[in-house]
Specification:
CATH architecture of the largest domain: 3-Layer(aba) Sandwich
Shape: globular
Structural class: alpha+beta
Largest sheet: 6 strands, mixed
Order of helices and strands: HHEHEHEHHHEEEHHEHHHEHEEHHHHHH
CATH class of the largest domain: Alpha Beta
Low-confidence stretches: 1-9, 15-23
Mean pLDDT: 91
Number of helices: 19
Helix content: 40-55%
Number of strands: 10
CATH topology of the largest domain: D-Maltodextrin-Binding Protein, domain 2
Distance between the termini: 13 Å
Length: about 450
Amino acid sequence: MRALLLAAACAAALLSGQARAQTSGWTLEGAAAPLKGAQISVTFLDRPGYRAIIKLLPEFERRTGIKVNYEIVPYENSREKQVLNFTARGDLTVALVDLVWMGEFAENGWIVPAETFTKDPAVADPALKLDGFFPLLLDAFGSWGGKVYGLPFDNYSGLLYYNACMLKSAGFDKPPATWDELAKVYAPKLTDKAKNQYGYVLQSLRGETQSADSFMRMLWPFGGSLLDKSFHSNLKSAGSQTGLQFRQDLAPYMPVGFVSMDHAEAVNAFAQGQVALLTEWSAFYSTLTDTKTSKVTDCLAVAPEPAGPAGRLPALGGFSLAVASQAPPREQKAAWLFIQWATSEAIAKQYVEAGGVSGRQSVYNLPEIKAQYKFVEPMVASWQKGVPEFRPRFPSWPAISEIVAEWGSKMQLGQVTVEQGSDEIGRRMEAILTKEGYYDGKKPLLQ
């Protein structure tokens, strides 16, 4: 509730700025006229949401005369590449900010508060409507320390994709409702190693994929968490240990080498009919419905992530776009025009139809969108209800993520036990937090 109230307060402050910025006849073309010829630079990922905005970029460039230069970078390298650019005062003008990078990017001054632009009538679009974003997304992905920095872009909810044909052949007429049901009933019956067929896959490549999408995903539904309220490790709690051991128990029903699979590889295993059940981001729906890459389009079905003993707590992921502070003022304004346009209600329908996932509420109320895209209902339900921030949004996360990735991988590979791995992560994590002042009362806890 505190997070949503913060989002509402941030939105209200910026909305007042927007009201002052409203000028008669404001247009994107008019705002861009003094900036014609400007070039901006942004990091994109090799994911459907970025391919979708790339398809629409010619319209923005035609209307504004602003050139958008982008580099497609693997997710696992995207934070490091941006940080190096910021510390070297490089050429990035738009920051791609993951949920867990917001604290680091904001506290280091690498990104500019949105109010700098919403108060500027020359570039502030009166139709921005910050309250049109899902409040959960604006808070989690765009806000830090009571200020909005970025606008939600390419946002995800964890979903359960399932091959309805494979389930039907195994005698199931619906997907598993709980994790326990998935592991004890569905996965064993759906696994036939002689046919290279497996019940489930969990993307677990060492890096952020391991720490966020594999390790952390199994904590919340079982009543666990990375940290307790005092910011000490909570990995030895009963809920955390149950969730991490559950992850180990799923291994016999997953493809060989799953510990080395990233998102694209896990999605492809499902798309080729090798796997019956996949928990993955809503952003990959367009990949699985693409007949050029997927063999299961006629059998594809979507449900919410399974519930655990602590309830249905799906993963939350995604990004925001923010203006980089290192850019010259002219390019900052051009960057803001791009960000407003890319996340706007005006292009939300086009963006979704091109394969993206918008953070705008209104687009999911359109009957044609709800009818065409099976992922919409479970995704919107999770965003409206709200989910826990299952990864801490503080500047220390990148260093902690590396520790979780290393020892989480060792757990899955059987090199250490769940208990041993939890001890190592807890000890090393608390050493970082001690050094950074989280136990001496000088640092705020989660934003």
